[in-house]
Amino acid sequence: MFDIHEANLRVGAQHEIAHALAYIAHGREFIDVELDDVGCGAVNVRPWAGRPDQIACIKMAGPAADFAFLAEHHGEDNALAYTVAGWAELLDLAHPDDDSDAIRSDQAGAASTGLLIYGFAWAAGFYAANRELISDLADTLRTADSRVTHQQVLALAGGRLRAADESEVVRVFTKLAPHRTTVDAIEAHVCELHNR
């Protein structure tokens, strides 16, 4: 039987661990990763500036983990339609920080770089290459008083972290190509909000 609470905890933990590992993959440190008892969490970081491609990839790592869950349970085409529809909700934002939804915050951060599709495609390839590691570390997060530090994640990853699967990056990038016009509008809107 499908347990929604368990699914939220699992997906939430995988979402946050995917972000944490993306930080590591891009040579960035974080303070810690946390998860609450309903599956909401955060990767706590000190303020930093990075290249737009790094920001897009890190921001989309969590949503790519969510996408993998949706694809597993509803099929990839349905998951993709749902994901792009979620991105389109960014067109309704009046200010880049006026939405408390963490997933939309991730999406807005990636869109502000102008590299939303690239970031998502990279993150999907990264998730595909590190699915087992992400799952294992998500289980650890759930049993470690809901908090793990940067050093703990590094130690637990133990040399298992892999680069994004390039064939998956290209496949997902190609699959998103028909949505380019929508994504261009989203990116332009979010960039305009950031420039106000």
Overview of the structural elements:
- Helix 1 packs across helix 5 and helix 2 packs across helix 4.
- The model has no long low-confidence stretch (mean pLDDT 90).
- Strand 1 and strand 2 form a beta hairpin.
- It is globular, with a radius of gyration of 16 Å.
- The chain starts with a helix and ends with a helix.
- It contains 8 helices and 3 strands.
- It has one domain.
- The chain is mainly alpha-helical and 196 residues long.
- A 3-stranded antiparallel β-sheet has the order 2-1-3.
Q: Strand sequence of the main sheet, in spatial order?
A: 2-1-3
Cα distance, first to last residue?
A: 49 Å
What multimeric state do the chains show?
A: single chain
Query: How many structural domains are formed by the residues?
Result: 1
Counting DSSP H or I runs of 4 or more residues, the number of helices is 8
Rough shape? globular
- Residues in helices, as a percent range: 55-70%
The radius of gyration over CA amounts to: 16 Å
Mean pLDDT: 90
Write down how many β-strands occur, each being a DSSP E stretch of 2 or more residues.
Answer: 3
- Structural class, by secondary structure, is mainly alpha
Portion of residues in beta strands equals: 5-15%
Low-confidence stretches: none
The biggest beta sheet is recorded as:
3 strands, antiparallel
Element pattern in H and E: HEEHHHHEHHH
